[in-house]
Amino acid sequence: MDIKIEKQDNKTIVVLNGRVDTTNADQFQQDMEPLMEGENPDIEIDCTDMSYTSSQGLRIFLMLQKSVNARKGKMVLRNMNPQVKEVFDITGFSNIITIM
Amino acid sequence: MKLDIHCEMILDEYREKLPVFKKLKDIVIKLLRDRLAKNQIVVSGVEGRVKTEKSLTGKLELKGFKYNTLDDITDILGVRIITFFSDEVDVISALAEQMFEIDWENSVDKRKMLEIDRFGYMSLHYICRLPKAQYHDPEVPELNHLRFELQMRSTLQHVWANMYHDMGYKSDVEIPAEYQRNMSRLAGMLELADEQFSHIRKEINAYRRNVQSLVASGNFDEVPLNGDTFRSFLSLNPFKRLADKMAAINQAELYDDSLMPYYNVLRNLGMKTIGDIVRMRNEHSESAYQLALIQLAGTGLDILAKSAALQNLCIVFILKHGFGAAGLVRLFAALYGDNTYNAQRADRLYEQAKRTNII
User: Fold this and answer.
1) If 0-12 CB within 10 Å is exposed, 13-18 middle and 19+ buried, where does residue B287 land?
2) Do B164 and B82 fall into the same domain?
């Protein structure tokens, strides 16, 4: 999995490429941890090229969402492919995370 | 106007003590905010100001003869707590009495000073000292000696006082009688409004307690569906059994998310009472579980939001009542907003449900 993180104005843009699964969830979490603190909580995650997420990925998205909520920010996941969106839907995570 | 030597001495004393008053202001405001938070009391505002030299000079010009020293002027530091409801002023004053030493001789309850046929300034003023038990700095012992004024009033009392202050009181110029009468009429109206707000709040609290006992009694058909009753119903964890069963498919952890977004969905599905929701749950839980089995088995997804249970119940209800894929699109739009995924997901689910005899 490839992760690109960049700051744009007051928000962070994350671009995910590939699968989030057991082999790379730890790395994904480490990369996301800096985004769970700081003054600019808004995060936009581009999922165009994310091909899959496992439960570990869902847990990391949940941690991110909670940290964003605690700082009164907004997090949006964009351009998810239908297979990945299905994972969020059937687990009820679409009720927790904003997907556009 | 030039001040006499006596007033100049008071002014010198003020300049010398100004930094201590400023420090006292910050300490008192912080102590009050912490205590309010600890007691879970939400107020409209806590604010404070140290009288400016200009303002003090004005006061000394008018009535400097009344004061022997600066200590006789009790409002050099003024702190104000503005509550939302007038009946909360008494709660706040009880807290203040616990926190500060009150100089009762100089404290006034202006709410009780007005004649029964007069309407005007309503506020509770305490003259206080900061006890050592609350805060003590051996290098600044004066923090515990200086007096300050604590004003407590409701938001509407505050609005009136601010307007009055701005229009007349501040300049100490008597407002012409016709305007004074209008200000009094406004004060009467705001007092009435304050009382009504407190009354409405009490009634709503009583209603909520009643709803909780009605829901707890289990007479669900007698409980109309509204935001309060739905919240009370959710506190019974009514979808737990289905959620647990769905979680068991992959030995999943359940994440406790909010089900309140489903309130409008259930209303739109025609639910009128909590009993209607209970019937939906009882009639469709098995199909909702079957749907989860089709979706989750073999995926290894071992985390589920609790809302997945109610989501599946709504999906099954919609399909079994013949609302079809269009009904599902409306459901998803209500929950997640209009987006391109809704129609795709609705079509997929509709086909899946037909294939597996859920409908």
Assistant:
1) buried
2) yes
Structural domain harbouring B280: 237-355
DSSP A37: S
So what's the ipTM on this one?
A: 0.92
B-chain CB neighbours of A59 within 8 Å are 303
Q: Judge whether residue B173 has pLDDT over 60.
A: no
Which residues in chain A touch residue B339, judged by CB atoms under 8 angstroms apart? 99-100
CA distance B227 to chain A (A): 18
- How far is the C-alpha of B161 from the C-alpha of B143, rounded, in Å? 29
What size, in residues, is chain B?
A: 359
Convert the pLDDT of each residue in B264-309 to its tens digit: 999 999 999 999 999 999 999 999 999 999 999 999 999 999 999 9
User: In whole angstroms, what is the distance from residue B189 CA to residue A61 CA?
Assistant: 52
Whether residue B249 is found in the same domain as residue B168: no
Percent helix, strand and coil across chain A, each rounded to 5?
40, 35, 25
**Going by C-beta distance under 8 Å and a sequence separation of 6 or more, which residues neighbour residue B298?**
none
Interface test with B, best of A77, A90, A94, A96 (most B CBs within 10 A): A90
Q: Which amino acid is at A33?
A: E
The nearest CA of chain B is from the CA of A7 a distance in Å of: 26
Residue B92 domain flag:
yes
State residue A9's pLDDT score. Answer: 86
Q: How far apart are CA B143 and CA B23, in angstroms?
A: 8
CB contact under 8 A, A94 and B335: yes
Note whether B106 and B23 are same-domain residues. yes
For chain B, the domain total comes to 2
Confidence of residue B170 (pLDDT cuts 50, 70, 90): low
Listed by start position, the domains of chain A span 2-99
Higher-pLDDT residue of B308 and B64 is B308
**Region B310-316: what's the mean pLDDT?**
97
Distance CA B320, CA B286 (A): 13
Can you tell me the distance from the alpha carbon of B324 to that of B239, in angstroms, rounded to the nearest whole number? 24
- The verdict on domain A2-99 having CATH code 3.30.750.24 is yes
With a CB cutoff of 8 Å and minimum separation 6, the contacts of B349 are: B315, B319, B325, B328
Residue type, B342: N
Is residue B210 one of the residues assigned to a domain? Answer: no
